[in-house]
Amino acid sequence: MIKVGIIGSTGYAGAEIVRLISSHKNAKVEWYGSRSYIDKKYYEVFQNMFQIVDDKCLDDNIDELANKVDVIFTATPQGLCSKIINEEVLKKVKVIDLSADFRIKDVDTYEKWYGIEHMSKEYIDEAVYGLCEINRDKVKNARLIANPGCFPTCSILSIYPLLKENFIDKDSIIIDAKSGTSGAGRGAKVNNLFCEVNENIKAYGVATHRHTPEIEEQLGYAAGGEVMINFTPHLVPMNRGILVTAYAKLNKNVSYDEVKAVYDKYYDKEKFVRVLDKDVNPETRWVEGSNYCDVNFKIDERTNRIIMMGAIDNLIKGAAGQAVQNMNIMFGEDEWEGIDQIPMFP
Which of the 8 DSSP states describes residue 177? Predict the structure, then answer.
């Protein structure tokens, strides 16, 4: 039985980890860390866990926690994990960090985009970027996983195969993305109030969104060189889901079958990436509550461009589900254990 500790268990992503681990046959949460709700029973924070989780929330002392569990999930704001991680902890447990602290290999880039000093630079090179479908072999033996961001997960999985196979011009990529409000976290913010979000859609973080360098870095590995993109996220009035529509110029004339063969080459054996049938566009409602990423494409012969599309649940494949998927790989479990839910509808 894998003993699990969660720092930040009362945020949206942390709560999803709790829910997923509750149905995992070979893992159990031993420690529910939450600075905001110390000594409060977990089900009193999330009533859906009534008679399911009776444990109290505890402080997030990682040194003490490391003596009691096999893996620690840090579902916390940027900067916290880099402050508390150390060699003594990593000698005892594996750490899966859901923040951006170890996703970007260039520390100057991280500090520029996030506006904070990185406090444990010595672990950046060691950390494995936990996009399971691409870095599975590296994840297996890792001590420290940088769980990808939600927008990057959907964007990279949608674009990666065609960039890797040199079908598209790496300097022409534009990403338009839509996200539900849970992507902004559980903290109270005026811009996320019902009256501010309902019956509205808006772009935000235009040309400045923090996920931009993460997407660029990972796509750069696929392209074999520096990639610079335009990335514009939008907030839509729904709880969950991300929809990515990405555009790029084709390097050559290609047929539907040629492009489909590339996606199949990378994803045909992947359980959680579904390449949809021809002319079926990804929709967030068909992945909600699941660890699936639906992808598809459309060739625009008139402009010699291709439109690449993807949809995920931002809290599952974009956060908690992918984190549990990483845990399963690290501990030699079936990769789908605990995260094999069929998407919910309606």
Answer: E
